[in-house]
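Input record (one chain):
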Amino acid sequence: MGVYGSVSLMIGLSLARSGWASLSFRLSPAVRQLLRPFAWYGLTTFLASASSLLIMKTDSVMVTQMLGLDANAIYTTVFFMAVIIEMPRRILSQISTPLLSQAFERRDMGLAQRIYQKTSINLFLVGALLYVGIVCNLPALFFADAAGGGLSHRQLRGGDHWPGQAH
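The corresponding structure, as predicted from the sequence alone:
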């Protein structure tokens, strides 16, 4: 159960014994009314997360089975580079979406246009920096193990077959 769980259990028991805390499983009518929507939201969130994880693992297994472990290593590296490239868009959209909805609610198209312009300029600058950083570090990412069986420059450009692929 772990240290934190056992400490929490001991504190809870001590509070219950002293009368400072009590457990009751009776739900108020307001809570009962909200229970079904909350359960539905939790279920859909869980299913979305589980399916996302399943998709991520399924494609790695397929790449390994079809092309080999070397190709899977490259696929996984590139996949996580794409996740890093997408992070600024997620962050800026979390910031700009409420502002845009307020602008559209007020029918202020000038403000909406300024928000879109600033967001796209910032995304371009961050994306360009990430792109330059990735391109400059490609040799370190992919060719560090070329002597030990890693991919060569020609294999990444498509000149040779992928490891594990029939010729």
